Amino acid sequence: MKKENNIRYDILQTAGMTIPGKFLIMKKETKIPLEVIDKIMVGQEVMIVDRLLSSNPRWTLQPYFTMPKNKEKYVHKYIHSDGKEEYVHWNRIHGKHRKIVKFECKKEKKKIRDGILTFNHFAGREDVMCIRVDTSHSENGKGFLYQIKSLPYFLTMNPSYRNEAFSSSIYDIYLKVDSEVAQAYLKHQEMTDNAEKVQS
After folding, report:
1. Could you say which DSSP state residue 60 is in?
2. Are 25 and 127 in contact (CB under 8 A)?
């Protein structure tokens, strides 16, 4: 495993930086259908409403130091959850509260759409690599995001789409690489996969 990591670092030539993420060669990736955005948003709407109900004062998204009273009562009122699925009871949210939720959902949907469009733009490219970095539990991840922006082969970064879920703490970072490097990396991956199949 250590040997494989060293190969990855050599390919990217990142001046000795530790890379806390998963690697994707965009040549192997396919475009994500935009229809999945609506599926993702069902979960994001629940998260947004829960966050607004956790704010103090409620519906403000202000940082809170004590949980608002009766939060669970409001959660049960506005969010359906039966252990199998969760969704927002939109017919129970009215007036300015509805406007607040709709506005936050609109911003979230734009972030998701922008991230997927960026992924689709680079999908299939031989000269682009993506690093997927989770910053939620890693100071190294946050530092890496800051460092990599200054590198000459940095292209862009977006919050990441993955497995029909979306998290603003996970970023897809796109890097320009030589197409021959990408091909060599793919060949190395194929050899590694074949070796693991033989051993199993």
Report:
1. S
2. no
